[in-house]
User: Fold this.
Amino acid sequence: MTTPDTSAADHHTLEDQRRRRAATPGRRFLRRFMRHRLAVASAILLIVLIITAIAAPIVAPHDPLAIDARALRKPPTPAHLLGTDDAGRDMLSRLIWGAQISLAVGLVAASISVTIGTLIGLASGFLGGKVDFWLMRLTDVVMTIPTLIIIISLVAVLGPSIYNVMLVIGIFGWAGIARLVRAETLSLRERDFVTASRCVGAASRRIMFRHILPNVTAPIIVAGTFAIAGAILAEASLSFLGIGVRPPTPTWGNMLNRAQSLTVLESMPWLWLPPGLMITLVVLSINFLGDALRDALDPRLLNK
Amino acid sequence: MRTSRNRPEFIAVSLIVLISLLLGACAQPAPAPAPAAPAATAAPAATAAPAATKAPEPTKAPEPTKAPATAPTKAPEPTKASAAAPAAAKQMIFASAAMPTSLNIFNMPGGQWMRYFRFAFGRLTNLDVNNKIVPDLAESWTISPDGLTYTFKLRPGVTWHDGQPFTAKDVVTTFTLHCTKDIGSNRIQVLKNIVDCQDYYDGKKTEMTGVKAIDANTVEIKVAKSDAVFFYSIPDIPIAPDHVVSKIKPADFVKSDFVLKRPYPGTGPYIIKEYKPDDSIEFEANPKYFGGAPKISSILDKKIPDPNTRLIAFEKGEVDIIDGFPAAEYDRVMKIPGAQPVPALGTIGAWWINYATDKANKDDPKYKAMRTPEFRQAFAYAIDMQGWANISSGGHPDMVNLRNCYWVSGIFGVGECDKSLNTYAYNEAKAKELLKKIGWDPKWELDYAAHTATTAADEAVQQMLAKVGINVKLRGIDPAVYIDETYQKGNFDITTIGLGGTANMIDFYYRFRCGNIYNKDTCPNCYNMIRYCNPEFDKMVTEAINSADPKVYEPLMAKMTKVWNDELPFVINSQNKYFRMVGPKVDAKTVKIGLGYNWEDIHLWAFK
Amino acid sequence: MTKYIIRRMLISIPVLIGITLITFMAYNLAPGDPISAMIDPSLPMSGEMMQKLRQEYGLDQPLPVRYLIWLREAVKGNLGYSFASRRPVGQVILERVPATIQLTLAALLIALALGIPLGVYSALHQYSKLDYVLTFLAFFAVSVPAFFFALGAIYIFSLRLDLFPTHGMSTPGAEYPFWDHIYHLILPATVLGIERIAGFLRYTRSSVLEVLGQDFMTTARAKGLRNKTVFWTHGFRNSLLTLITIIALSIPGLFGGAFIIEWIFAWPGMGQLAIASINARDYPTLMGTALIGSILVLISSLLADILYAAADPRIRYS
Assistant:
């Protein structure tokens, strides 16, 4: 029996080992993620924004709905840091509350898309056969339909409301996710642990949800991130056109609606630049984040 | 090495470029029309031929004068053909938001498109800016003492644009066709008062004795009932050419060239040269016009639907007159060098408060309170009209003509409010006091429904009402179901929509008789959407409408107006004011498009 | 190849049915009476005629029957009458189609003309500063909302610099209508194309990188051919094939984006009509636009697929 060798070399090895710490997947992910500096900055920005949005009632200096009939379209002043809109409402407060609505719509719509897409992808990939065929045809339809056109038509018809917007954006955004999940499921289906489960007699549903789903989470998270970005853009477009969320509820999209007037566009930049820049910033951050997540979570790059 | 291998791709790309360029070339807009030949200048005519009334647009109430009895005879001054204008004649270009898709002389929706029929066609009489009936194709007329026979003496020597003489037969044919079912006239409601018209319409008679040509220059119209409204609808009936129109079968009329291609000939100062449905219409001057040859030889009105594009076309001088601009562009527009803004008045807006006399829960305390004059007055007092005007015009209250009175020589008039009436100036304290008096409960919620969608102005109103304790919930009603929701079902507590759609004030008041509620099957022409019912008012208005004598109906009108000024069945907010813009090339003094005018005397318009 | 094309067309059928189903459903969800759209506004309407129309369009029938009747009418070209302009919807939309196709094609061309060369350059000079800048710009281009970008473009290039017209398709009374037309086309087409540039750029970049690393490239270089020659004649052709697929995939997005761009620039195409119909609550026109727009996208995708089949020797000779 050998006693632990406490020679200098071994000691060095042990210490090294302790210093390197257990390279768990979580820690590996974090390390790779940190390498994308832009993504880190984006993440911080988004967290700040989300906190501000949640704390809107506290952070916003004025009531975003309060109309001041005498102070229409005033440029920025100390009282109104970003000026007022064409009903005399404070732009900064509307911007902050708008963050809440725009982000919320994005999140909810993306969640709907992800849920539908995951379910369809799992079922399609795992069950195969006829189910796969018809679900994939359905996915084809949704993928080929020019979604913006149909979304515009449906929301216009159903009536502009925040719920309709979330719903319609959500139910047209799942095609890509479904395809992704299906591909992953197909490859996972042949793995040993799945075969083992089947041998033991586990039901299909159980296998799908308890075994396959956890392994598909990585690409779903990435796809979900991009879905949030897409949903935010979609809601902004709809609100800009006047068929998304309607005033007085502020969203970044409908604040930009005013810019269709030449006068506003040319001489009142405080009415349209802030919301537009915010949308760009948020979506950009989410895109960087998603890109970094994809790199960090990609199993193929495990050994880099 | 690149050439041979990459040729297929290169060819493909080139083809695509070529195709798109070709498509671009094919979708060219029509080239600008060539300038017309120089026109002869003529002496200005002395006859006034101002605004014709438009059906949906409210018109002015009868002026307290003796107008109906006899008409002043005015002969036109003989046109003097002077030396031909030296410079090449210019074309005046208008840009409109829309263009009619057909020009049906028997079924022209009112509003701006009646102007095309004014340019090209004459009518028996016209309505001038002071609401007086003035001669046009009829140079004089008499009305029998019992008010049942109108005799018009036509102006001699008038010819159609194609040279045919204008006679009484044209008038007879026009009125007869209006009373023909297959033509689908939209004036039939007014004209069915003519003797035999209804029977002729229903096919029960084959001839209409109500309109007769006494001789080539005299027409006699007999009505069944004395009716003040009838005479004021005559300016709305352009006279069609018998020698063209009687050759078309009534059932085929709507598809005929006269409607879809070119209504020709007419008797007006301009001849319709080319009409492209939903796109543009072009006129050329009629040198033989009885009021004098027009000064401008050619007019083009084209459709530019986008308001920004229209504005920019105007800024660049590509267009001479635009009929209004979005309120948001006010600052920019007023700074355009050389542009001359001409104010014009449009529809009147109001808040209609439901009496809910036919609702199942009409005896709820809320509705009982809503029916009291105190509530309505409180409503009026609670609204800061200046602030409302500021918001609804986007910061340019100059664009809103606040009207909160009911009598200006009529509800639809131009001018000052009757000083003896209450204007309910903004007074929060008074509003609160009145509400307290009737025991208004701030927990009651009112359904405030706007036509199409609610605006920032509506939100402002909501906040103003909240300050005095009236709790209002906003809702927008889609236009497709608006009539059903409000008129038919009465599903609203307050709604905002403009007034309009009647010939004059008596007609308007007549709508609000008890029980005159819209029903799409049984009473499609009933318009008492607020379910108003006041038996006294009913008696007064029925008496007024059955009399052709101003000495009878005018005092009644004054009394009815006082009643409404106290009761406030609806609260008028503004008379839509907008600015028509006239470009620097045009002599703005000659264009009659300002307050009270509506593209009249087109033969007198001129460039600088 | 014929088999491939036929198979692709067959797959398009369920898509077509899906589109018609969605459009029909949406149309019935619209407020108001669906019959009111089918009435020819120039004809005087009476109670009995309304009844007859209700029967003809099956308003008293169950939903599936109504769908078939509607489909039958749509195939005949009868999509109802526009509330706003009172003309047949089909006619109104068809007038607008060329303008939209011009805009979309021009945008596609611009995106290709800029995206591919930039992507190639980016790949050939990987990790250079320009590469990073372009990648960042690509991210930016997909993050900016299209309408914001359009507004900014109008602000900078039309209002401030006065380089391009702000709206419309033509200037009334222009001297050279063709060039005036192109002049009006540039800004909207570029704005519409910008988002696609990002996609094409990144795709081209990664595709070229992939190709560059492949064995046959090394072989060609070993044979002594110049890098550039090798790249263009051997490598690029392979990228081209999948490029066609990428183009095909971007068509739906392009059409959808065109709707918004047309509205902002008042470009009189289908998209501008659709948005104007929304504002005017003109549901028949809106539905017609959705239907025809979707069908156009379907057709273009099909064409792209056929082009792909023609270009890919593996499919051509199978």
Chain B touches chain C through 52 residues (CB under 8 Å). Chain B has 19 helices and 17 strands. The longest strand of chain B covers residues 340-353.
